[in-house]
Amino acid sequence: MKKAFLPILLILLTTTLGAQEQDLSGLDCSIRLYDKAIYYPDSSLMVKITLTNNSAKGISFKIADRKLFSFDFDIRTMSNARVAESDFFITHRLQNQPVFYREIMLLPGEEYAVIEDLRDYRQLDQPGTYVVQALFYPQLGNKDLVIKSNRILVTIHPGMDILREAEIRVEEQTREILTAQPMPPDMVVKNVIEARQKNQWERFFLYMDIESLFMRDRSRKAAYLKAGEEERLRMLDTFRKELTSSVVDRDIIVIPQEYEIVKTEYTQKEGKVVVIEKFDYGTYKEVKEYTYMLKKKDNIWYITDYNVHNMGTE
Fold first, then answer.
1. Which of 32, 110, 115, 295 is 20 to 30 A off residue 254, Cα-Cα?
2. Distance in angstroms (rounded) separating the CA atoms of residues 62 and 60
3. Domains in the chain, please, with CATH?
4. In degrees, to the nearest 5, what angle opens at C-alpha 178 toward C-alphas 176 and 180?
């Protein structure tokens, strides 16, 4: 892989000839949302762009170090109105300046992927549903040679929901940015239980795999698997809100007065933590055994499932 430096005007002169010499018909461009977040007007909108060589021979193309010289996005509202360029895009792309780039060679079946923020390209500061398509320019300055991706839907929700408001209150009080930290499964469960005891929802959800918990219910799982990506995001958003309102799955959100972790088992990827939890109802205490199942993702343990066994009262 070599690195070169050429002004934009020189690229315009040279890449047209290069485009005629190579058949790029087997080069496929596809996009998907990089994370399954609920997006708001101030959220990042990360998209993964994957270039795949589906031909029987090697394919080479240029990739600029600053990716917005190689990619662009056609983003439209549901009424087919184009979304305007962002200030960042205008400042960094629509001006004459030197461009650093690399020559990439993909063998048959190989892939090359990058992750880009849609907000670097377009003004996505209004709630709504948008149709997004990526445009890849394999010869940089040659705008006549473009490879278009599949189209995806992105929904930006208005305002802030309950969880976002809770997050801001906690940050104002503690001056702490909440991020999941690597820790053993028993400490994850301890943090989740104590967050619930303190009614700190943002900490409670930090180590929860909401998608897995949502699909514990068979009917919810069936509907989720049939739904498109936009509808799935809406389902998970509603599920979070229903959890905070004690509408669904009360066993996972009921607040224990006291608890004791009695057993922890885990391998490289899966874990199980058994906890005795006691719930105070005034004249008696209800005792339950909780078994939390966890899975590790990106070096972080997340609760994916749980079982509850009633052990009587005291």
1. 295
2. 7
3. 3-156 (2.60.40.2360), 162-313 (3.10.450.50)
4. 145
Q: Quick count: other Cβ atoms within 10 Å of Cβ 271?
A: 23
In eight-state DSSP terms, residue 268 is S
Residues 6+ apart with CB under 8 A from 61: 24, 27, 51, 103, 104, 138, 139
Q: What is the pLDDT of residue 96?
A: 67
Model pLDDT for residues 253-264, shown as the tens digit of each residue: 899 999 999 999
- Helix, strand, coil percentages, rounded to 5, for the chain: 30, 40, 30
Which residue is associated with the tokens 């058949």?
A: 23
Backbone phi, then psi, for 40, in 5-degree steps?
-125, 170
**C-alpha span between 163 and 148 (Å, rounded):** 37
For the chain, strand residue ranges (E) read: 3-7, 27-33, 46-53, 59-64, 71-77, 98-106, 111-117, 128-136, 147-156, 258-266, 270-280, 285-297, 300-313
- pTM score over 0.70: no
The predicted structure's pLDDT at residue 200: 86
Please give the backbone phi and psi of residue 313, each rounded to the nearest 5 degrees, phi first. -130, 170
Task: Report how far residue 312's alpha carbon sits from residue 286's, in angstroms, rounded to the nearest whole number.
Answer: 6
Q: Which residues of the chain have pLDDT under 70?
A: 1-22, 36-37, 94-96, 141, 159-178
Q: Which two tokens stand for residue 91?
A: 């400042």
What's the Rg (C-alpha) of the chain?
Answer: 25
Please tell me the distance from the alpha carbon of residue 274 to that of residue 306, in angstroms, as a whole number.
10
CA dihedral 143, 144, 146, 148 (to 10 degrees): 110
Which residues are CB-neighbours of 143 under 8 A, at least 6 positions away? 137
Report the alpha-carbon distance of residue 197 to residue 255 in Å, rounded.
6
Q: Is the dihedral of CA 208, 209, 213, 216 positive or negative?
A: negative
